Amino acid sequence: MTLTLPAPAKLNLFLHIIGRRPDGYHELQTLFQFLEHGDELTFSPTSGSRVTLEPAIDGVPQENNLIMRAARLLQAEAGRELPGVHIHLTKRLPMGGGIGGGSSDAATTLLGLNHFWQLGLSIDRLAELGLQLGADVPVFVRGHAAFAEGIGEKLTPCDPPEDWYVVIKPDCNINTGMIFSEEGLTRNTPPITIAPAFEGDASRYRNDCEDIVCKLYPEVEKSRDWLSQFGPARLTGTGACIFGRFPTESKALEVWDSRPSGITGFVTRGVNSSPLHTKLTELD
Questions:
Q1: Which residues make up each annotated binding site for ATP?
Q2: What is the C-alpha separation between 8 and 40, in angstroms, rounded?
Q3: What is the value of pTM for the model shown?
Q4: Given the DSSP bridges, would you call strands 164-168 and 233-235 parallel, antiparallel or unpaired?
Q5: Active-site residue 225, yes or no?
Q6: Domains and CATH numbers, the chain
Q7: Can you state the angle between helices 66-78 and 101-116, rounded to 10 degrees?
Q8: Which site from 53, 71, 125, 146 is most exposed, i.e. has the minimal number of CB atoms within 10 Å?
Q9: What pLDDT is recorded for position 151?
């Protein structure tokens, strides 16, 4: 049986850096929400026991691809030979955009192959495996919008408004390590509790990486300045994408249609339940 599943994008509706740990990682607070836009993975049975993937992604060696690493983790977890599977990736999400493309692909692989191979692993165990691949993978595995703390792995489910977004991808890729090593990065934002994240003026929340990214990458600043004409515009994660929130699809499309030539991106709706989990529920 062939199985096709979405790998949705995410936004960080805000990203506050509240400190730096002794191991060099940063303590964060952020709010994740999924989008109705993303990659797509198709799992097809093959003879033998190999896992294969196509197409290759420029600049990402096959052995380092998070999809293949996720598959190998499940093979090791099973502890036995599993049927062969070919994975085809339909890539729609930009690399280095801060919207979770690689992490989402990894999570879809974990949940998809758990279903495909009938392993019966719990969501908790899959999230533990996902954390080995990246701090953002567990939120995709668990499949609900969440207030995240720690390095992004401590998740509390929540339900922000499901608004529409214009998402712009400037023509650059952000070096995350460089951003977090910058001396000018804000690292002492006061921590908040979940409730204030939904109270008052949402524009008072921010992405603490945004000023540094805009300083180092003029293309990001230019996109933010253009989108800011229509309301608050913000960087998501530590990637290059800028987003603006709108109450209706028609308003978001009106803004998108007014964009200058050369701007790339998409219009989509924010959702609190992952499209991946919605699809898997339909299969059960």
A1: 94-104
A2: 8
A3: 0.94
A4: unpaired
A5: no
A6: 1-284 (3.30.230.10)
A7: 30
A8: 125
A9: 84
* Alpha carbon distances (Å) from 50 to 111, 170, 186: 18, 37, 46
- pLDDT for the residue numbered 60: 80
Tokens linked to 94: 């930009």
Separation of alpha carbons 252 and 266, rounded Å: 10
Known binding-site residue numbers: 94-104
| Chain-centre distance for alpha carbon 105 | 9
Return the H-helix or E-strand segment holding 67.
helix 66-78
Q: Which residues of 83-96 are buried (b: 16+ CB within 10 A; e: fewer)?
A: eebebebeeebbeb
In whole angstroms, give the CA distance from residue 191 to residue 209: 16
Which positions of the chain have pLDDT values less than 50? 200
Triad 262, 259, 36: Cα angle to 5°: 95
The closest of 217, 263, 269 to 240, measured between CA atoms, is 217
